[in-house]
Description:
Blueprint: E1 4-8, H1 13-24, E2 28-33, H2 36-48, E3 52-57, H3 63-77, E4 82-85, H4 100-128, E5 131-136, H5 149-168, E6 173-180, H6 194-203, H7 211-221, E7 231-234
Parallel strand pairs: 1-2, 1-4, 2-3, 4-5, 5-6, 6-7
Helix pairs in contact: 1-2, 1-7, 3-4, 4-5
The structure holds NADP nicotinamide-adenine-dinucleotide phosphate.
Residues 8-9, 11-15, 33-35, 38, 58-61, 86-90, 109, 113, 136, 138, 180, 182-183, 185-187, 210 line the site of NADP nicotinamide-adenine-dinucleotide phosphate (NAP).
Amino acid sequence: MKKIVLVTGAGSGIGRATALRLSREGHHLVIGGRREDRLAAVAEAIRNGGGSVDVRRLDVTDREDVAAFVDGAAEEHGRVDVLVGNAGVMPLSRLDSLLVEEWDRMIDVNIRGLLHGIAAALPHFQRQGEGHFVTIASIGAHQVVPTGAVYCATKYAAWAITEGLRQELDPGIRVTTVSPGVVESELAGTITDPGAREAMRTYRAAAIPPEAIADAVAFAIGQPPEVDVNELVVRPARQR
Ligand SMILES: NC(=O)c1ccc[n+]([C@@H]2O[C@H](COP(=O)([O-])OP(=O)(O)OC[C@H]3O[C@@H](n4cnc5c(N)ncnc54)[C@H](OP(=O)(O)O)[C@@H]3O)[C@@H](O)[C@H]2O)c1
């Protein structure tokens, strides 16, 4: 069945790969992010592949922006079926670097941004009696590493919020957390701390393509309505 699928942070990396993959499955995509040129390029690739897509500028830290993103899609298409909460930043650093503004940024994007999406989509899902939240968390939702204290905290929070949703919601609404290991993307580009940046060069050497995560999202969405894939952890085989 063709679904209306919303993806945040769809201009690059995992969000981009997920949007492209789901459009090939026949779903209509609504893609959001701050860099409109990047979204336009993704939309062009989707249309060239025969898919359909709407593009919306979106800052997930702005609650009204997220509400407009979700409500606009619901108005246009009469429903929303899937929200992939993917937008994220990862400016890693040791706590004693005191990059407090970067801590705030991670909290704002990775936690508040996710919550804004839930607040916007939940009323639609409840009215429809169905819907699907997909959260892109991280293996950082399962383990803490030096330089990752705040990032991992935001991903533990993303995991907890999504698991809480699963427990609270009616069975018609499905909930999936996908936790990637090291994936090729622009994510490490948000690191400003020189030590953390250097450490990541080795750590991120064995990365898998974002399509591997898109496959996991497609698998969860493609299950029959009575099957809820709650959690998938997808790492490079070489990652420990
Ligand atoms: N790559 C990995 O190794 C890895 C591992 C585990 C988890 N993850 C998670 O996967 C998700 C996607 O990351 P990625 O690896 O694909 O990195 P990426 O290429 O940097 O993608 C992140 C996306 O988030 C968007 N974004 C950032 N701040 C935003 C905001 N305020 N509002 C809206 N969109 C925003 C960015 O678009 P704009 O800048 O255009 O807004 C960007 O397209 C993140 O949640 C990340 O934590 C990644």
